[in-house]
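Hi there, hope your week has been kind to you so far. Would you mind checking whether the tokens look sensible for this chain? I owe you a coffee for this, so here goes:
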Amino acid sequence: KTHSGEVGTLEATVVDKEGNVVRGADVGVYDGDLRIEGMLTTAEGKVSIGAPMGTHTVRVTKPGYRSWEKKDVEVRIGRSTDIGIVPLDKENYFAEIRVKSPSRVASIGSNPQYEMTLKNVGRNDDTYTLSIQGLPEQWYARFRESRETAEEVSEIYVSAGEEKTLYIDFIPPYSVDIGEYNFTALIGSAARQYEEDLTLRLRGSYSMRIYAKSYRHEINRGDTLTFDVTITNAGTGGALTNVGLNMSAPQGWRASVDPATVASLEPGERATVQVTVIPPADIVAGEYKVISLAKSDQAEGEDEYRIVVKERSYVAILGLLVMAGVAAGLWYMFRRYGRR
């Protein structure tokens, strides 16, 4: 019987068969099948529970251990009832499984990875089977014992009291859609099957690609160069907005882009702009580098071009005539004075 409002204290210490304290064991106080009080053991394996006066049943449970029960435990008003040491016996086969970050966000194009710890807390060694349930069509998943190795495993042996770390790789197809995907990691043992729910949210990635038909141009000194540049939204994350192309040229050069900006580009969409480059009038003939930098609110890309500036043809011809004149003068002088 219990008496409303009349409370005493129930105390206990929970240990395993080796005498090690058991943290997180659930100690419940029952009136028949009705649970009236309860709490988890502390790091020292202890509990101190305020319980109504009366005669109760105390049950102690923890995953991986066999349950313990004691009937006819009497609680008195204002007094502490210590039921002493509660020994829990480990189950023959039991595992604790922890997944680091079971819910993840990744970009399309990546292969997300989950880290799992498998601890054998049973009394016996065990071999565990490993599989994934709920994979969409064309998806692939694998378990590995190390990030560095490419070898995948479908089962793993773990000695009693030992733990091992596993890595689960998910490989989506190239055509995967943005969205949320749910899987279940299945770990089978000699006694039971364990399930761990995993969630993966795939988001699109932003990517910009720049293309020109030629990356090397030749012009004469004093000329103006124009060429087209195509900007493509190569990502899957959505539209690129406020797309602009900026040109970086050597000092004294002038460069412009038409149109200066593109309002938006949807995934797979492209736009072509015209680039105009004007070298300075007194430039020395040679090869120069011009860089284009495309920027949007979401992504950017860069490319470079080589521009070869040559002397005009009439300048070259004039130079040849001058050299020919000098050569003719030397020949004349040699003919007239050379044999005296």
Remarks:
- The chain has a mean pLDDT of 91.
- The two ends are 148 Å apart (CA to CA).
- The chain has three domains: 7-88, 95-203, 208-313.
- The helical segments are 313-337.
